[in-house]
Every structure is written in C-alpha cells, then in structure tokens.
Amino acid sequence: MRREENPAEVIDRTSQAIGRANALARHALVDVRARAAHLRELRNYGLHPVGDAQDELEEACTEAGAAVLFLAARSYFLTLDRARLALVRASTEQGMQSAPGG
Description:
Blueprint (H helix, E strand, L loop, with lengths): L6 H14 L5 H22 L7 H4 L4 H36 L4
C-alpha cells in the first residue's frame, strides 16, 4: 500500500495540516482525529476480522449502534467541512499575499 493510500497516514497528515493552519480549535481537532481513528478501527474490524469478537466494536454493528454512528456522522462531516473551508481560505490568503502587488 502506498503511503498516500494508507488511511492512518491520511488521518495523520490531514490532522497535521489542520493543526498547522489552526483551521479548528484544538478540542475540535482532537475530536475529529479520535472519530476518524474510531471509524477506521470499525472499518478494519468489519473488513479484517481477527480473533475474538470485541464487544465495544460489535455494538456498532447492531441496528442501534449503526443508527448512533449515522447520527454522529453529520457533526463529524460538518466539522471536517469547517476545517476544509478554513484551509481553503488560508491557502487563498497566502496566495494573494505572495502574488505580485499583493
């Protein structure tokens, strides 16, 4: 697997970019990173089951657990979108400052 295809690497590099740009408050960045890691863990658990069932992960595979994940996903993706917009804004401002006459 190439580095840019490794989900853990994508999570790390995205978190670093958000942190460097101060695109989110520190607590929001910590929350986004934790949610991303949890979703990755669930994905890996579902796709690559190894060993005994893990109750905390099995719960997410129930109808109620899946509903909770679905409802929580909205705020997660809205937070990611806030970070994306802040990164775009920062990039645009940086580009304007480095442009001739800017």
